[in-house]
Amino acid sequence: MPAKDLYHVAVRTALIKDGWTITHDPLTLRYHKRDVYIDLGAERLLAAEKDSYKIAVEVKSFVAASALAALEEAVGQYVVYQDVLEETDIERSLYLAVPDYAQEGILSEPIGELLIRKHGIRLIVYSPDVEEVVAWIP
Prior knowledge:
Elements: H1 8-17, E1 21-24, E2 27-31, E3 34-38, E4 40-46, E5 51-59, H2 67-88, E6 92-99, H3 100-104, H4 110-119, E7 123-127, E8 132-137
């Protein structure tokens, strides 16, 4: 099992504060002979529909020596996990949890915007300092 990201606990706490129930830590998917580990699985009850909305969340800290290298790793993981989710668990939407400084930095630059748009990446922007969700994109 892979090591947890630097801000794993902060994102977990932020999701709970935002009304989510953590169902998996990590969310393990099996695809043929390989296990794929997505950082968190969560769900929120939709009272009006008496149903729930389920998400899978990959946590990223963007603390690498290079912001571009961190972006490449995050997008690569997102693409792999999205493809595996589509094949194994279509009830869950995948989100990439990114710190507010990454959203204000590399993700707001043309290359970040390009990759988010081209790959349809859903973002949860969080504040690692106060452990709260800042924004859901889209």
